[in-house]
Protein 1
Amino acid sequence: MISFILSLIALVLGYMLYGRYVARVFGPDNRKTPAYTMRDGIDYIPMPTWKVFMIQFLNIAGTGPIFGAIMGALYGPSAFLWIVFGCIFAGAVHDYISGMISLRLNGATLTEIVGKYLGHTTKRIAIVFTVLLLILVGAVFVSSPALILKGLTENVPGMGLYFWIAAIFIYYIFATLLPIDKIIGKIYPLFAFALLFMALGLMAALFIHWPQIPEVYDGLSNMHPNKIAQPIFPCLFVTIACGAISGFHATQSPLMARCLKNEKYGRPVFYGAMITEGVVALVWAAVAGYFFYDPASGDLAQHVTEQAPKVVEIMCKNWLGMVGGALALIGVVAAPITSGDTSLRSARIIIADAMKIKQKSLLSRLAIAIPIFVMVALIIWFNLTDKSGFAVIWGYFAWANQTLSVFTLWAITVYMILNHKPYFITLIPALFMTAVSVSYLCIAPECMALPKSIGYTCGAVAIIIALTRFFYWKNKHCSSK
């Protein structure tokens, strides 16, 4: 528990100190925000800051800081370090600066930002890559909540897996098409409260039970049951994505950049939501460590091969009681659903911006949304008909998620240079995540499955190439001024 407590303190200090430094480097001011200058009653609507924060938190949370942290706990206490350092120095910086750039560019989507700073060719690649990722998010975030809801209603006739999948999918359609304040603005804060209650309730239970979980000072050796195929680097850094850094977040920040009333609220909304998500991930990593590795957990102990949704159900019910457990499970169910619908909304907006289609009328929104819904339905069908479907989709989603963060980090690094700001705060995470993404593509069983030595070599070569190209561009740009 010492590692857990120190990690919590580090996250809070990270927000107060490094978060303030990053905000000062960016330099928010009192200019009018797109919520006022671009107001359209659909996507551009001024909203209270507390509500924007709650929506942003729920948008970026999904199942990542829950299921990802549970699976990450299998690697041992190194999961705590990745959550803390990843959140403070990579994820929160990634979310804040990309969100603030969007704010400065009239609520521009991630692909518009990538195009502006990395060129039109990269933009075209990013559009295809990002839309496919968002469609994958919409699909994979149907299965996990549907399975939990099926378990909660197993004695209710007609409320099986297909019922809940259909219900969630229908909700996606309405949330994607309606103005952002009609559904998202009204129910998201309630669901965010449930998710926060779950995290705080489990945190209190941790202090009450004071479990013997693996500590950082005991060593950082790989505790994963399949440690040969799942080395800490890069697998841990992909397994725990949303709880440390996630490219998906940069697709969500523009949604709230279009609703923020003042630039100075960017730090609590963008940086703060990521730190809050890190706290949620820490809680689940600690609780999972108890159920996986503490002999004192007794009958509640779970075998390390147990699936994350089942672990969540057991933990909530046994530690938070009937009412608290139900509320916590609502948070677990709401998190992926509410990330799924905003991912499809983001996909609609990205395509609309790329094709310059105004989204004021319902017909124009439907013209873009219908093909998106069809693709999501096909992926869900594959997931249901193939036993390994979910695992395959999730593996590609996880890699694509972290690869998208590489696009974002390099784009905002270029922004920092062009605006004469200290660029090291984004360059270092960009290099690290480049190595993670390339190495994982080489090593992971669902990808190329190459030997680790080759994967690490490719990761190192990728860093050298990226640095060489970066400084060549930088020197050329600076010399032309």
Protein 2
Amino acid sequence: MARRRKDSRTRSQSLGRKPRRRKGPGGVAVPRPFSVRNSTIQGKGAFAWRWIPAGTRIIEYTGERITEDESDSRYDDDSMERHHTFLFSVDDEIVIDAGVGGNEARFINHSCDPNCEAIDERGRIFIEAIRDIAPGEELFYDYGYELDEPLTPSLVRQYPCYCGTANCRGTILALPE
């Protein structure tokens, strides 16, 4: 059995206290425009450390690509007191589990009044700014989580939203139109 070498980064670096570098045009290393730290909304959050103009592609949401059935077996919502996963549904068959091999995109929290959106580009998910984002501002997108069952007050409580915006719907669930 092959052993994986431990990553040489320190724990604080892997949590994004120093902006991670990625390859930009021409293979030049470019730091991410955000870092990860504690959020007042939920656990960890992603915070801009420089201006991010509207339309900027910020990061790809990565992780292990699994089936819907595999995601259901890994995370049993019924047994959770409160829903918490790093899953992103790509389509009816494929789910990205950022809890396994995912990157810092998994720390972008939900808001009912987001400054980012998730873009599906041929099965790859990218987070893009939908308005200018100031340094220090937390990054958010609307999770719009969909369930295959009728919404009940109990389900809404299981999937709470803590964004506190004026138009907060009180849940990360997508409400019926």
Protein 3
Amino acid sequence: MAHAKMIDTMPPPAAATEGGRRPTDVAAAGGAPTCTEQGLPTRNGNAAPPNPEVVEKPERRRFTKAYKLDILSQVDACSGAGQIGALLRREGLYSSHLTNWRLLRSQGRLDTAATKKRTVKPSNHHAVRVTQLERENARLKARLRQAELILDIQKKASEILGIPLKALDDGGNDL
């Protein structure tokens, strides 16, 4: 009991820890703090400035069809327990790679002779032009209906007021 009271009255250590971990800039057991980069000691106890250089985003790995087929043939040749896992670790692959590659092989998309190089699909300019012309046609029909309505109103107004209108022949010329 006396031992428990003595622990409660003791001051906390200089580099107090929370949950068994200490902050990154606090030294272990009274030693000088070290720079987290390159393991060098910090100057005047201050942390080293962060590296301002932006790390380039890693490029995604791409596997050729020949490589995929080679790996699948090696996997098919594995017979013992743990051989596939060892192969995957050696090549730095995941089991999901095998799953996807097996699916591609069953669909026939890994056959090097049967497939051609991927190209951009040619855009269908005719379909785009047809939709533009259909929109323009609808717009012009609406304007024609409006113009015919205005002409009908003008004819009725001229009849009411007794103003004679010039008659047009079939070509649109005055008689």
